Amino acid sequence: MAILVTGAAGFIGSAVVKRLLESGESVVGLDNHNAYYDPSLKEARLSRLSTYSCYEHLRVDVADREAMKAIFTRYAFKRVIHLAAQVGVRYSIENPAAYIDSNLVGFANILEGCRQQAIEHLVYASSSSVYGANEQMPFSTHHTVDHPISLYAATKKANEAMAHTYSHLYGIPTTGLRFFTVYGPWGRPDMALFKFTQAILAGEAIPVYHFGQHRRDFTYIDDIVEGIIRVLEKPAQSNPQWSGLAPDPATSKAPWRLYNIGNQQPIVLMDYIAALENALGITANKQLLPMQPGDIPDTYADVEDLVEQFGYQPATRVEDGVAEFVRWYRNFYRV
Ligand SMILES: NC(=O)c1ccc[n+]([C@@H]2O[C@H](COP(=O)([O-])OP(=O)(O)OC[C@H]3O[C@@H](n4cnc5c(N)ncnc54)[C@H](O)[C@@H]3O)[C@@H](O)[C@H]2O)c1
């Protein structure tokens, strides 16, 4: 009985698969290797996994209903970690259809597959972006999140609602994890740390949105992986105290749960850049710009539920995590 991990050639997915393989699990990974960013980076991440005999990789689109049905018929999965998605807040303004296909149709296909097999636990990626227009800090899963400000965020919020119906109707334990700006080695070329590093090393100016005043709860990849693995091992349970008269948005009578995974320590963008300058030994030429449409000014995760229920403790300081990224980047790109 293998674990299915979707988005396995992605930044977080490949790190999760590696960790599962190291602990002796059999894993089937799935990814469509789309060209949203350099597919050769996805191939390189995959080459780290192909050396394990307990790993099988499928090049499939989660939005392909027939192909997904066939996979859930062919393999017996005990658990599913669903990380495949069209990512990026800004790109959802340019190409909304990609989000409908991968994040809504794809998610529905995953839920159907889990129903077909009576899966023990589905863990899926949500996002801090669901907090949208919320301003009460820190962001808590016990707050309502009904005001998304990008289509990306709306699809992630929709995933949480779709999962609830399957947990309610079919008793499938589902847990949604709202990740807060994940960074680290093998990271995504469309994210700030990667783009800044590339530009600084090329002697180019870096665009600093919101004049560098954004606060982000930057979370190191190893801390995210640790959180996912801990959650996976404990299938979501119903909350016996849950009441429809005062509904808690993070739990339910159904076996359905939501958690934040963040660092619980927001950092001002300028300080993040300072950590990068320090790791590179170069001072960046900063082009200060206003905020971009769809962006949230600040993110700050309340992770108390994860700490209490899973003993989760984010352990990586931004200075250390950024230095690890720079070490990887220089080595991988030979700069
Ligand atoms: N990285 C972050 O800071 C962050 C923050 C919040 C939420 N998330 C969520 O975490 C998950 C993983 O993100 P990531 O940073 O590793 O991104 P990523 O783009 O590196 O990984 C996603 C992978 O999914 C694959 N994919 C996309 N659409 C697909 C489809 N239709 N069928 C099959 N595969 C498909 C891509 O090829 C990619 O390899 C995503 O669901 C994302 O929304 C990430």
Description:
- With 335 residues, the chain is of the alpha/beta class.
- It has one domain (2-182, 219-262, 301-314): NAD(P)-binding Rossmann-like Domain (Rossmann fold, 3-Layer(aba) Sandwich).
- The protein has helices at 11-22, 39-47, 65-74, 91-94, 96-117, 151-170, 192-201, 221-232, 269-280, 304-310, 318-333; strands spanning 2-6, 27-31, 55-59, 77-82, 121-127, 174-179, 182-183, 206-208, 215-216, 219-220, 256-261, 267-268, 286-288.
- The strands form 4 sheets. Strands 3-2-1-4-5-6-11 form a 7-stranded parallel sheet, with helices on both faces.
- The protein is globular and about 55 Å long.
- The mean pLDDT is 96.
- Residues 7, 9-13, 31-34, 42, 61-63, 83-87, 102, 106, 125, 127, 179, 181-182, 188 line the site of nicotinamide-adenine-dinucleotide.
- Keywords: NAD.
